[in-house]
């Protein structure tokens, strides 16, 4: 397996050789420190290759203007993913109201035509890459069955964590029963296993367990 520096150089040169004009110039100018750090700290440790990944990927927004996403991931599966690495200064502090509106409109338009968008903060990429890898892995596992190397029981537990995160309240065995279509006793066992792993904890009321809530501080363990 190639080291990161060698693989990264080959990756960029491969794309440069197949581009011309502004698309080539944008890659030469736009692939900078933040994008390289994302590949080094997040993508390479998670994926081990740059297959189907396109740096400085050109798409057209709702006005017909060209827009270059930091990366597009276009695997054979039915997934079109755009990835942006956003620094606080350029995407928050220095953004005026018009730019803010345009960015939100562009994101909505891209979602409407079939892209999915992921935005990662540069500070997280540089200082908390494990968290980025965990969240990105959770996302990709939903769309790329071939990446599910964990045993089915472990994948089900991670799916339960995702389900609980979107519920907005403590999850109950009946919720798990309806979501997964499993026997009620199986639902209880799944929740108890997550408690034993430290990913969830029981919520009590009137001297009995009324549900289970996530212990968010332990989510990074999902990367293991």
Q: Please, how many helices?
A: 10
Proportion of helical residues: 40-55%
* Order of neighbouring strands in the sheet with most strands: 1-2-3-4
CATH class of the largest domain: Alpha Beta
CATH homologous superfamily title of the largest domain? VSR Endonuclease
The biggest beta sheet is recorded as: 4 strands, mixed
- Provide the residue-averaged pLDDT: 85
How is this structure best summarized?
This protein is an alpha+beta fold. The protein is built from 10 helices and 6 strands.
Task: Please tell me about this protein's structure.
The chain has 224 residues and is α+β, with helices and mostly antiparallel strands. The chain folds into 2 domains: 4-139, VSR Endonuclease (Endonuclease, Chain A, 3-Layer(aba) Sandwich), CATH 3.40.960; 150-223, Arc Repressor Mutant, subunit A. Helices cover 52% and strands 18% of the residues. The protein has helices at residues 4-17, 21-30, 33-47, 88-93, 97-112, 122-127, 129-143, 152-165, 173-180, 184-196, and strands at residues 53-60, 66-73, 81-86, 116-121, 200-205, 208-214. Strands 1-2-3-4 form a 4-stranded mixed beta sheet, sandwiched between helices. Strands 5-6 form a two-stranded antiparallel sheet. A hairpin with a 5-residue loop joins strand 1 (53-60) and strand 2 (66-73). The chain is elongated, with a radius of gyration of 21 Å. The mean pLDDT is 85.
